[in-house]
Amino acid sequence: MKAAVRTGRYGDAALLAAFAVGLAVSSVHWVGIVVAGVLVGLTASSVRRAFVLGLTFAGILVVVFAAWMAWHGAFGAWVGAGPIPLLTVVTSLLAPVAAVGARVLG
User: Fold this and answer.
1) Residue 13 sits in which domain range?
2) From what superkingdom does this record's organism come (predicted)?
3) If you write DSSP's letter for every residue of the chain in order, what string do you get?
4) Tally of domains in the chain
5) Nearest residue to 99 via CA among 60, 47, 59, 61
6) 6-31, pLDDT tens digit by residue?
7) Residues 36, 19: contact at Cβ < 8 Å?
8) Which is nearest to 99 in space by CA: 54, 62, 66?
9) What's the Rg (C-alpha) of the chain?
């Protein structure tokens, strides 16, 4: 079953679903970043790919959050808030750590 999701016919669909679910859960709570990392790690075909996909998710997450802040007119205030933007980026890096951990253990 694991091999079918990782490299089989439904591998890309499973990965896309992991990204979508991860973004949805991350919009509700920061623990969603870890959930997304675990889901991405479970659908990755190797540990290296899990790390790269986790970094990709983290980048997408930061871009989507920045776009959301810009949409609501708070981007300038967010960037000027001192260490808060850095905290956002560092927190998003939980995704690749969780992805690699899930791939190694799963």
Assistant:
1) 1-105
2) Archaea
3) -HHHHHTSTTHHHHHHHHHHHHHHHHTT-THHHHHHHHHHHHH-SSHHHHHHHHHHHHHHHHHHHHHHHHHTT-HHHHHTSTTHHHHHHHHHTHHHHHHHHHHHH-
4) 1
5) 47
6) 676 777 888 888 889 988 998 888 88
7) yes
8) 54
9) 15
